[in-house]
Amino acid sequence: MLDYQLGEMRGKNGSVLRYEVEAITMELAISISRKIELTAIYKRLIKKLPSQRVLLYFQYIIKEEIYPFVRQGCVIQWYKRNGKTIPFHESFVKALESGVFLLLKECWNFEDIPITLSNQLLINFTNITLLKKLIKSCAKTSIGKLGSSFYRFKKNGYPILPRLQQGIIACHYTQGIDPSRRNDLNWYRESGISPEQVLIYFDKNNTDSISGKLISRQIIKKVENCGFKWVSLEKGIIEGKDENYWHPHEKPKNLFIEKGIAQNKVEKWIVDVANDLLAQVHYWRSFYDDFNVKINYTPEEGLAKNIAQAIAFDIEKINSGFLVGKQRSEIFLPHSLYCIGYHPKHVFFVWNKRLGRYFSPNYNQNDVLVITGYTNELFKENEDMSNLSIFQKLRSEGVNFIIALFDNMYGPDVHYSKKGMTEFYQSILQWVIDDSTIGLVIKSKKPAVVKNLPMIHPLLNKALKTNRCIKIENELGFFPSEASSGADMAIGCGISSALIEAVIGGCRGIHYDMTHLKNHEFYKWGYEKIIFNDIYRMISALKRYKKNPDDEPELGVWSPYLDKLDPFKDGKGGERIGSYMRWLLESLDEGKSRNEALQYANKLYSEQWGSDKVMQLTDELEPCC
């Protein structure tokens, strides 16, 4: 594989190559899915799973499998555009002569870059991370494979929690329940939902497991003290004994599509994907039935599992419900197709109406977008260090201009490069060192960001020794709005969600868009006022503003656009989410159909917050008001 840095290389339109890879991947995935949709096997699957989201599932799986090969095509294309030497064996794309890649070859749209298929594929990788990524993308449904393994466990004799007459909101433990940080329950406190109607479920996809920790007994105790029920979906992830462990009931004999009906490699692949999906849907349908789950609230995004969870509600006409989720970050991708399969919630809570254009065309992904404003709390009391003490400390050092800095993740496969992030930090840190009246608060996305930038460490250490630079060590324990509440200006890398939160919280702020996404609306709102793509021009503008604010009166000013970021601006998005979910739950408990429940919740929400705060995306629903 040719060397690449998708966050440094430029696509045809001048933005980073990552955007181009994503656009072509999704267009090819849709073309391939249309061919699959015409097959007899797919039509048989639809009879078993009568949901429009089945096609969405295939599009997502196709996208995951073909991405590394589309990326390779785009990299070769970039080398050619820039006159770079390409060894002959790297001048074409190589893929396995199997499954989806046979369809990929039919739809391949790269001029002068052929794709060849072989039964023996040998690929050279520049690092082990890329190898792992390809293995993961080629495992047709890694989530499905894990789901299938649940069936091998035998019952441990622990009684299933009693099924209640009232419907249950199942909440996936993803970010945790600590109110001092991002959490899964910020919607609950003012919702009016009784605690016995909330079921917290644990699996390996949570912040504790990802960091290699078991779910502690202390967390379980907190859940129980709140009056919530809880259940583990996997063995060995809860500290102590495997109690409250659940697994689905027996799979029906006719659940799967017979592999023998596949007449070629493409059909065999379709059958494999179809059966993975059938297994996942059966798993989640069993979960919903056993616990009377009417709403599955999951903050995660970008998983095939979520599509299966939605389909498990779609196929049940009587005892059905909704997959629900919230917008976690600013969606900045320049093409609506990128979002396909990433947010497959029936009801999706979003910050503002701008999100509507990212979900249209909808591809049967969402039923309703509900505008709640920013869905996380803007401010909180921090036990480690108060906002006031941070900024008072800097002011006591003679500082008269404080910058809050928000970085981002980087790497060869993401929108931001290590080189670009290094240059960003070096420019800001050098300014802080040179000017004794500058203060800096660094709120990094994750500890690894700064740790893996060795080139900035000498400057960072020098800046820290001035006592005018504070690096927040408890990154996950501070909200961006808190880390910027006493700052004169906030700076975020890329189209930064952290920067958006800081701005909604009342701080001036600018995006440093090292991806050069010039067709983003922020460029129209205020190029070189609220968004820059040149680090030197940005620093110059900041210096002019610091010296005399009248020289740059519009720098970092978002007041004309705040309604487009958050029409509420009160930090109570979580409360609105909770109210909407309570209305859904009440309707379903009264025996209303899914459509009737949605109309009821939409009507009440529209009456309270305005009819423009509900956007329906499916033709099946009647107007909400």
Properties at a glance:
single chain, 625 residues, alpha/beta, eight-stranded mixed β-sheet, six-stranded parallel β-sheet, 21 helices
Protein model, in words:
- The chain has 625 residues and is an alpha/beta fold.
- 40% of the residues lie in helices and 11% in strands.
- It is built from 21 helices and 16 strands.
- Strands 5-4-3-6-7-8-9-16 form an 8-stranded mixed sheet.
- α4 links the parallel β1 and β2.
- α1 crosses α4.
- The longest helix is centred in the first third of the chain and has 29 residues.
- The radius of gyration is 25 Å and the shape is globular.
Question: Would you kindly provide a brief summary of this structure?
Answer:
This protein has 625 residues and is α/β, with parallel strands linked by helices. It is built from 21 helices and 16 strands.
Topology:
Blueprint (H helix, E strand, L loop, with lengths): L16 H21 L2 H9 L4 H29 L11 E4 L2 H9 L7 E4 L9 H11 L3 H8 L18 E5 L25 E5 L4 H4 L6 H9 L3 E4 L32 H27 L1 E5 L6 H11 L7 E5 L20 E4 L17 E4 L15 H10 L4 E6 L11 H17 L3 E6 L3 H5 L5 H9 L3 E3 L8 H4 L5 E5 L3 H8 L4 E4 L8 H6 L4 E2 L2 H13 L14 H4 L7 H17 L4 H16 L4 E3 L9
Parallel strand pairs: 1-2, 3-4, 3-6, 4-5, 6-7, 7-8, 8-9, 10-11, 10-13, 11-12, 13-14, 14-15
Antiparallel strand pairs: 9-16
